[in-house]
TrEMBL record:
InterPro entries: Adhesion/Biosynth-related (IPR050904), FAS1_dom_sf (IPR036378), FAS1_domain (IPR000782). One of its GO terms (cellular component) is extracellular matrix. The lineage of its organism: Eukaryota, Metazoa, Ecdysozoa, Arthropoda, Hexapoda. Residues 239-261 are annotated as: Disordered. It comes from the Eukaryota. Residues 59-189 form the FAS1 domain. It comes from Photinus pyralis. GO terms for molecular function: cell adhesion molecule binding. This is FAS1 domain-containing protein. One of its GO terms (biological process) is cell adhesion.
C-alpha cells in the first residue's frame, strides 16, 4: 500500500530506477478534482450540442448555462427568438451579459420575447458580443473593443471595479468551457433613448410564444458527424430552429356553385 492505495504491480526495474504501479492517482480526491475543475474550466472541452444552435456552440452552451440562472430570464428569452447564430457561429467569443435588473431599469422587461429579434433590437444584442476569448487580465484601463454590432466598447478600470461603457461588471470570468467567456454586467449596453419602449409600442406588439428548451440536450453522435462529414466549428449555415414563422389563413367565403382551387 502507498498512502492507502493498492500497488497493482510489483517491481519493474528500469535503467537507473524502478517502477511500481498503483490503482489510483496519489494525493487526488474529489475536493481536489472539484477545485481544479473550477480553476481550469476554460481548458475543458464541451460536448457537441445539436440544440439550440448546432453551428454556434459557444452561443448554445452560454444560453443553456444562463437559462439555469434566475438572474438571466430576460436575456435568455430575447436570445431564444433572435437569429444570432449566423453572427456568433463557432467558438471564441466574449459575452457581456446584462442581469435582469438591467432590462427592468429601461422597461425591456415588459416587452415580448421577439422585441430584440431583428433590426435595431438585434444590434443591441450583437453589441454585447466581442470576437475573441477574453480574460479579466485583458480588460485593462483604456482598452477599446469592437463589438459584433460594430460599436466600440470602452473599458475603464479602477482597482477592483471594471466598467464596460456605463455598465459595471458584477461577476467576472464565467467560462463557457474552452469556447469563450462571459462577464455579467448591471446595465444594457448601447440602449439608445429613441429605441426604448413606450406604452404605445408595448400595446402594438403581439407577444410571441417561446421555444421550449428540452431539459436534457444530447450531443451529436460521432458516427453521424463522420457520415455527414461535418466539422462543427466550421459550420456557418443558419440553424433552422432559430426562427419561428407563424402562418395566418384568412377566412374565405364562396357561393355554393363556386369552385375553389
Amino acid at each position: 500500500m502507498v498512502n492507502g492505495v493498492q500497488v497493482v504491480k510489483g517491481d519493474t526495474p528500469v535503467a537507473n530506477g524502478n517502477i511500481m504501479f498503483t490503482g489510483e492517482v496519489l494525493f487526488v480526491n474529489e475536493s481536489v478534482v472539484s477545485r481544479l475543475h473550477q480553476q481550469h474550466r476554460d481548458k475543458e472541452t464541451p460536448p457537441l450540442l445539436a440544440f439550440p444552435w448546432f453551428g454556434a456552440q459557444f452561443l448554445s452552451h452560454a444560453f443553456l448555462a444562463l437559462e439555469r440562472d434566475r438572474r438571466f430570464s430576460h436575456i435568455t428569452r430575447f436570445l431564444n427568438l433572435a437569429d444570432l447564430a449566423p453572427h456568433v457561429s463557432g467558438t471564441g467569443y466574449t459575452f457581456f451579459v446584462p442581469v435582469d435588473t438591467a432590462f427592468e431599469a429601461i422597461g425591456l422587461d415588459k416587452m415580448p420575447d421577439n422585441y430584440l429579434s431583428n433590426g435595431n433590437g438585434l444590434q443591441v444584442l450583437l453589441n454585447h458580443f466581442v470576437k475573441g476569448r477574453l480574460y479579466d487580465r485583458d480588460l485593462k484601463d483604456g482598452t477599446e473593443l469592437l463589438s459584433l454590432g460594430n460599436s466600440t466598447i470602452k473599458i475603464a478600470r479602477k482597482k477592483e471595479r471594471v466598467d464596460v461603457n456605463d455598465a459595471v461588471i458584477v461577476e467576472s470570468e464565467v467560462f463557457v468551457y474552452n469556447l469563450g467567456t462571459m462577464f455579467y454586467i448591471d446595465k444594457v449596453l448601447f440602449s439608445k433613448r429613441d429605441f426604448l419602449p413606450t406604452s404605445t409600442i408595448a400595446n402594438d406588439i403581439i407577444p410571441t410564444q417561446r421555444r421550449k428548451v428540452p431539459s436534457i440536450v444530447e450531443k451529436v453522435p460521432d458516427e453521424l458527424l463522420e457520415e455527414m462529414g461535418l466539422e462543427p466549428d466550421l459550420l456557418t449555415e443558419n440553424d433552422a430552429t432559430t426562427s419561428t414563422t407563424v402562418w395566418s389563413t384568412p377566412n374565405v367565403t364562396s357561393s355554393s356553385n363556386a369552385t375553389i382551387k
